[in-house]
Amino acid sequence: MVAAIPILLSCARVAGTPAVEREVPDGIDPSMDRYMAETFLDCPSSGPTMEAGCCLDLDSLEEIRTRDAWIQIRSRGIRGAGRLRLSGETFREAYHIAVAPAGRIRIDLGDYVPDIGIGLVSSSRRFTYPFSRGHPFYRSRDIRGWTGFYGSFIRGASLRAAAGPFGVTLLFGRPAVHGSAGVEFPYGRSISGFRLDGRAGGIAGGITAIDGGSRLGERIAGLDLSYSSSGRRCMIEAAASREGRVSAVWGLGIDGKDAGLGVLVWSVPARSDGLLASFPGLSVAADRSRSGASMTLRKRFTRRTYMAAWGEVRRSSDGMKRETDSAFRLEAVIRWKRGTARCAWSSRVSGSEALVPFPPGRGVNMDLSRGLVISFACRPASPLRLVLEMKQSDSGEDAGLMVASRASLALRALHSHLSLSAASYRSSRGKARFSLYEPSGRGKYPWKTLYGSGARLNFGIDMGIGVVRASLYLLWAVPEELSEARVFLSAAI
């Protein structure tokens, strides 16, 4: 086993874990983490004991853009994963391994993100679905493996020990990113810290302190507390840096039989949160002070019909100029035995990511637009699924309409899955932007941003024979005259 560890740390994977492969709400662009599918490869807690594979991405010139290889292993005491990517002349490696030598002790080595607290001090780069009443609540997962190639992470080690309902986590390493030269350490410092946490009944909380963990490289500390009972949940987190800047976030959720409510309020001074912090909307535009509030309401009228409303007000300031922004969304859904119909309207949201209020890397000064989405999904037969959607986007100077369709067929006799999607989009004014979901193979981020006018045709097939699984993805697009291909092969034991 000792000899196998260096081998694991030198290999890599391009696909996501099986937990990532979940159904996306049809016709609605969710605020889902773009890193979930391709760049999260957390230590697997279930599935094959060993899995390895490779992948090739080809462009329209029939040139190989990237080559990937990966491996992951799961045993009673060791879980690990690694990826290796060659893109042009750039070589990148990423790895993570978790060892549980005895009882409730766990050691993590390699690339990781501390997913601790609620999100002000440090958390893995993901966020919850903001249009649901549960969006204020971030459920921490301690240390998460980070065998991907986006965002900041820590290359080092951590130790977790638990006794009954209490636990302590120690971590240290160096903040890093994957740049043009591979793994880079642009912050020029080390990072270390600890977390003490506990749980009693419906109450859970913790204290976190990380030296070098703030965006300015200072020591940052936080206190978080959550309470859950009989469908009611409440959480609060406060964080303070060495310079005395204090951030706070508070959330409330109520789950009833036919109604639900979610409230979120936050206030964050400029550059006062953690380097890896990613609470919804807080890590964006970190050089500015940010505050705001959002509310989500959900009401079920009948067994198959419900409506939801979401609204938000945000303020930001650079010390000289203050900006105030607001957004609103209304959604209605009707379900029946073999289908679902949705209609959603949004006001003043980012034009580049329609209906996604917190896309990764969103800037402060971006064009806002209103959008309308109507979708219809049905399953006329058990192996067949059909989706039809229409999107209208209007950002003042740019406006247009997109119509997209998608079909998927499960060929059970051949242990395969076939998918076909097509989209046509036209700008009636300027160069409108649309968000489109198109299946693109395992481990590939499926949300695309389209501009102007054009058409796309997407074909994919995924099949498994014994322990071997393979997939092929093809794309044709006009007027860009773009074509892509993706070939994926893996073997699991």
In short:
This protein is an all-beta fold.
Ordered list of secondary-structure elements with their pairings:
Layout: H1 4-9, H2 35-38, E1 50-58, E2 64-74, E3 78-87, E4 90-99, E5 105-115, E6 142-145, E7 153-163, E8 166-179, E9 182-184, E10 191-200, E11 203-211, E12 220-229, E13 232-241, E14 246-255, E15 259-268, E16 289-300, E17 305-317, E18 322-336, E19 339-350, E20 368-381, E21 384-394, E22 399-411, E23 416-429, E24 433-437, E25 447-451, E26 454-465, E27 468-478, E28 482-492
Antiparallel strand pairs: 1-2, 1-28, 2-3, 3-4, 4-5, 5-6, 5-7, 7-8, 8-9, 8-10, 10-11, 11-12, 12-13, 13-14, 14-15, 15-16, 16-17, 17-18, 18-19, 19-20, 20-21, 21-22, 22-23, 23-26, 24-25, 26-27, 27-28
Binned, the helix content reads: under 10%
Order of helices and strands: HHEEEEEEEEEEEEEEEEEEEEEEEEEEEE
Please provide the count of β strands: 28
Count of runs of 4 or more consecutive helical residues: 2
Q: Mean pLDDT, as a whole number?
A: 79
What would you say this structure looks like, in words?
The protein is mostly beta strands and 493 residues long. The chain has a domain at 100-285. Helix content is 2%, strand content 59%. It has helices spanning 4-9, 35-38, and strands at 50-58, 64-74, 78-87, 90-99, 105-115, 142-145, 153-163, 166-179, 182-184, 191-200, 203-211, 220-229, 232-241, 246-255, 259-268, 289-300, 305-317, 322-336, 339-350, 368-381, 384-394, 399-411, 416-429, 433-437, 447-451, 454-465, 468-478, 482-492. It is globular, with a radius of gyration of 23 Å. The protein starts with a helix and ends with a strand.
